[in-house]
Amino acid sequence: MSKYRNLGVKMLGLTVILFISLSQVQAQEYNLVNKESSLKVYGTSSLHDWHIDAENQSGKIKFSSTESCAIDQLTLDVVTESLKSGKSGMDKNTYKALNTSKYKSIAFKLTKVNNVTDKGSGVYEVKANGDLSIAGTTKNVPMNFKVTINGSKIALEGEKAFKMTDFKVDPPTAMFGTITTGDEVTVKFSTIFK
């Protein structure tokens, strides 16, 4: 009888250890919190500087180790028609330039982490590469960002400048071409994962 009881205790112990291990593995994956995240696109035009906010984004980040900021996976998707400037005419021109009827999202997918620098107190500087897809064109781009790990909350901050024409997007125009948009834009992001 005690032999079976010992076996039962060992099986219970093994089950508890397995459950704790699985919980720790699952705790390494975090989902983007849209309402706490911000992504803004800044640009210029012949009339004035402008910016657009992304109102609907999703994504996830996965670590093999949060202690060393070892990122296994990072994805980010922005619903293209959630880009809002506060001016309906500008939004319409943006959606036309991005061909939003065909391409519903702008996506970034991490392909390689090149370097992680520990800045202390859960803050890391990450140099990486990823595939950025805009309006049907995908390019592998360098992306540098800061990661702050604070318990169950992960914050990513950074910015990236690029030319719209690199993604075969013609910079939008308005007023029959009298107002032209500059080719270069800068994306600034502060992304929260939990």
CATH topology group of the largest domain:
Lipocalin
The CATH class of the largest domain is Mainly Beta
Q: Could you state the order of secondary-structure elements as H and E?
A: HEEEEEEHEEEEEEE
Helix content: 10-25%
Question: Number of DSSP strands?
Answer: 13
Structural Rg: 22 Å
Largest sheet: 11 strands, antiparallel
Uncertain segments: 18-27
CATH superfamily of the largest domain: Lipid/polyisoprenoid-binding, YceI-like
- SS content category: alpha+beta
Number of helices: 2
- Beginning-to-end CA distance, first to last residue: 47 Å
Number of domains: 2
Outline: elongated
SSE blueprint and pairings:
Layout: H1 2-26, E1 29-31, E2 38-43, E3 50-54, E4 57-65, E5 70-79, E6 83-84, H2 88-97, E7 105-120, E8 123-134, E9 137-150, E10 153-163, E11 173-174, E12 179-180, E13 184-193
Antiparallel strand pairs: 1-4, 2-3, 2-13, 3-6, 4-5, 5-7, 7-8, 8-9, 9-10, 10-13, 11-12
3D structure, described in words:
The protein is α+β, with helices and mostly antiparallel strands and 194 residues long. The protein folds into 2 domains: 1-28; 32-193, Beta Barrel (Lipocalin). The chain contains 2 helices and 13 strands. The strands form 2 sheets. Strands 1-4-5-7-8-9-10-13-2-3-6 form an 11-stranded antiparallel beta sheet, covered by helices on one side. Strand 11 (173-174) and strand 12 (179-180) form a beta hairpin. The longest helix is centred in the first third of the chain and has 25 residues, at 2-26. Mean pLDDT is 86; it is low at 18-27. InterPro entries: Lipid/polyisoprenoid-bd_YceI, TTHA0802/YceI-like_sf. This is YceI family protein. Residues 29-194 form the Lipid/polyisoprenoid-binding YceI-like domain.
